[in-house]
Every structure is written in C-alpha cells, then in structure tokens.
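Class, look over these structure tokens:
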Amino acid sequence: MGSSESKSQHPEVLTPEPKPVDKQVVRELETPWRKFNWNQKEELKAKLENFTPANPNAKDIKILVAGQIGAGKSSFINSICSAIQGRISARALVNSSAGDSHSFTQSLKGFTIRSGKKTLPFVFKDIMGLEPEVLAGSQTEDIINAVFGHVKDGYKFNQDQALSHKDQHYNFDPNLTDQAFCLVYIIPGDTVQFTDHRLLDKLKIIRQRISDKGIPQVVVMTKVDETCPLVRQDLEKMYTSKKIKQKMELCSSATGVPMSNIFPVKNYHDEIETDDKTDVLILKALEQIIQLADDRLEDSDIY
C-alpha cells in the first residue's frame, strides 16, 4: 500500500506548476499598447529619401548618438544604413568582444546615410561610450559641446579631461550644419536597471543643459530580442510584450524622456541579410528622430 499511496500523491506534487499557457498570458498583453503599422517600410524609405531640411541655411541635419559602453551605438548607425540600403552595412566599426569595459569608439565621427548613389541630408555623429566613473568615458562637457557644434570631427576623447578651447578641434563659431538638433540615447533593454546613479547623473546633466536650448532627446532601446522571449520569436509582438513596455517605462522614468520619444529596435548583429520587420522598426525610429530634429531646426538660428 505504501507504494500505491506514493504513486497517488505524486501528481499532487506537480499540480502547483504553472502551465506554459499561463506564462504566455502574463508576458503578452491582449491588445497592442502602441499603434504600429508593420507594412510601412517602403513608405518610410520613400519619405526619408525625399526629405529636405526645413531651414534652407542647413545643408543637412546632425544627430548625436550617445550611450553607455556596449549599448549598441555604432550598431544602430550601421542598422540605419542597412535598412536604407537593403543590405548589411558595417561602416561604423563595432567591438565584438563581449564584456569589454572600455569604449571601442575613441573619436568623434560623422556618418552620412546613402540610398543608392544619393546621400541623404542627415548625419549621425558617433561619440565615445559613457562610463559611470566621473572622469572616465565620454565627458559630459564633450557631449554638450558636440551637440552645440563646438567639437570638430576627428577629436579623440580624453578620459582625463574634456575638450579645451585651446585644442585645434574646438570650433569657436559653429554654424547650423555643425550643430546637432537631436540627441539620441542608446540604452540596451536587456540590462536596463539604472542601478548606477553615476551614469544617471551624467545623463541628467546633459539633458538639462541641452533642454535649455530646446534640443529634443530620444531613447532608442536596443537588444529587444535579448530582453523578451516573445519578441525574440516574433518582432511583431513588440507592442504586446508586457516586458518591453515595462522596460520602456523604466527608461522614461529614469531619463525623463517621454514614452512617445522612446523607440525599441533590434540592431543587426550577426545577420547577412536584412529583414522587413527589423527594418520597419529602425526606419520608424529614424523618421521620428529626423522629424523632431527638423522641427527644432525650423525655428532655429545660430545659438
């Protein structure tokens, strides 16, 4: 009887285990919380290819891309080029060493975006990755100066001090084309916890200084496929994923950037061909970034 009793009790031990279906319900919302058209890729491409800056005094619009080390800044720039060109691009060099504690990008460099033989009128500026330590990584003053157009391309970032007025790379008289009209923070969704307040303090200083000049800020949340298993299986689950929404809300709360200016994307990493779903997320983020920057440029004059 002891053997029979043990067998009859065994199923009761397993009953508290949640069913896989229940886990799915917890992770996924019933309806998308953000309206998104997954079939707008060609429309977005055409709109970006025909874009012209609102202010005739600016030949192009500069966008500064900042973020912590390993967030995917250079990969995002490459992914934009890939989505526009319809092939994998690797113009911005990316460090493939996992867990590297130092920024691979050492100098300020601008990347134009091409569609076929046409160069589009917006340029993305890649900057050294932020590190939490006060005097390490890209200095807050360097980022602020880069936004305001005071830093020339080719400037090699110094971990010990920010760019000096005496340096040959300091631009004393920036014009509209030298200045950046949107700052894009790249934040990895899989690790976004903001437990290190030193990094947040840097972001707050930068945000306050450029907000005083009306410069819009955007958060691009990368590595969404590593953040949520639903999204890893199908990118169209992006806006029904409870976890992605929670991560975006955390980004908004920590950085002060409104949810409407936060865009989750999947960068190209090990692919050898482009993908429509990946492209449309990247192109929609790009369209919003360019629109925000152009709105600011339209009302702008030299600072």
